[in-house]
Write a structure and sequence with these properties.
Blueprint lengths: L21 E4 L6 E6 L6 E3 L8 H5 E3 H6 L4 H7 L7 E4 L2 E3 L7 H12 L10 E3 H7 L14 E6 L10 E6 L6 E3 L2 E3 L2 H9 L5 H13 L5 H10 L8 H26 L6 E7 L5 E9 L4 E5 L8 H17 L3 E5 L1 H6 L1 H14 L10 E4 L1
Parallel strand pairs: 8-9, 14-15
Antiparallel strand pairs: 1-2, 2-3, 4-6, 5-6, 7-8, 10-11, 12-13, 12-16, 13-14
Helix pairs in contact: 5-6, 6-7, 6-8, 7-9
């Protein structure tokens, strides 16, 4: 059985006499390698003039790249034998030295294994814990400690997990980030793929907390990814999500207090319920200015299975408040974090505009 061919390579490229140095690429995402065959000794050296420095790229190559430089499958296999200078790390992927490969070499090898050979439109993205380590997550294990490197590919790709590579399939690849020259999945997708492989609830909680607290992604987006991946029903995942959402609301409330204080807004009544005298409960708000009948509500909704019902309930609450003459300003944790000055201006404008409106009917204000 010949393991020196890429799992999706078709056919072979015949060797030519006196080959000239060539630049072999694996497309716009894959590492780029230059290989020149030596007439004596059969060794291979790499170096692509004019391309980014690539010690890793020169040490990790595919069988297709070797064939383009005149190295046959048998020749590559011989060099990987006992005492040989190379090693085969994955099917069709070689490391041009002996000894344990570095983390960077494993990452490049994983991408080369998953790339479409000889094509510029291959799709392979590092995801899961490896991606989070590249994103700088302290809650993710360091790269050398990872047994597997998760690689995200379209579901139509005919690839199997092997060696250190674990294939993760997606209907469509998310927009990638380039980290240290490598295509990496966005944090929300990487967290979701990591949670799918974790059984430790505490590890799940740490990842979700760092993703939200570090401002890497909004809770609503993260929960949507987990829901689409059908992970919310897993033991420990829902509890971790609830904990993260509660913490995100607490942080958003602190920012709301800071906004009122730092931008000189009038002091509101904090965290109150509004009712009509002898009538129905209108709803709770995070801040209320009774003289202006202006309320601020933090929108920390997260999509769940009953997202439509939750939205309807949310819309009804806003409608009831506005019918009672209350101007409702909705702020999200993201807006408070990124554009606090603009949100303060929105609230100030609502307070000033209250003079142009009819006064609200008498409301009962209760602590929440």
């Amino acid at each position: 059985m010949n393991n020196n061919t890429h799992p999706e390579a078709q056919g072979s490229t015949p060797a030519h006499g006196n080959p000239q140095p060539q630049t072999a690429t694996q497309g716009k995402r894959g590492p780029q390698v230059h290989i020149a065959q030596q007439p004596r000794g059969g060794s291979v050296r790499a170096g692509a003039p004019g391309r980014p420095p690539a010690g890793i790229q020169r040490r990790v190559v595919t069988s297709a790249q070797l064939r383009e430089d005149g190295v046959t499958a048998a020749g590559a296999s011989a060099r990987c034998g006992p005492g040989g200078p190379w090693q085969q790390l994955l099917p069709g992927v070689f490391v041009l030295h002996q000894g344990p490969p570095t983390s960077e070499e494993r990452l490049h090898a994983a991408l080369l294994y998953a790339a479409r050979p000889g094509r510029a439109d291959e799709e392979a993205v590092i995801t899961g814990l490896a991606a989070l380590a590249l994103h700088g997550f302290s809650s993710a294990p360091p790269l050398p400690a990872l047994e597997h490197i998760d690689v995200l590919v379209p579901r139509t790709r005919r690839l199997r997990s092997t060696g250190c590579v674990r294939i993760v399939r997606a209907h469509a690849l998310p927009g990638t980030r380039v980290v240290t020259g490598l295509p990496v999945a966005p944090v929300c997708r990487a967290v979701t793929d990591a949670v799918a492989q974790l059984s430790d609830p505490e590890a799940v909680r740490r990842l979700l907390t760092e993703a939200v607290r570090g401002g890497h992604c909004e809770p609503s987006v993260l929960v949507r990814e987990l829901r689409l991946a059908r992970l919310l029903t897993r033991p420990g995942v829902q509890d971790a999500v609830d904990s993260v959402l509660a913490e995100d609301r607490s942080v958003a409330e602190e920012r709301l207090y800071e906004m009122v204080r730092c931008f000189g807004l009038p002091d509101p009544l904090w965290n109150v319920d509004l009712r009509l005298p002898g009538g129905p409960h209108l709803g709770g708000v995070d801040a209320f200015w009774p003289e202006q009948s202006v309320a601020v509500e933090l929108d920390t909704r997260a999509p769940r299975q009953d997202e439509d019902a939750l939205f309807s309930q949310y819309a009804r609450k806003r409608e009831h408040l506005e019918r009672a003459g209350v101007t409702v300003v909705h702020l999200t944790p993201q807006k408070l974090r990124e554009t606090m000055d603009q949100q303060a201006a929105v609230v100030r404008t609502a307070l000033m505009a209250s003079a142009d409106h009819d006064p609200a009917p008498y409301l009962v204000v209760l602590p929440r």
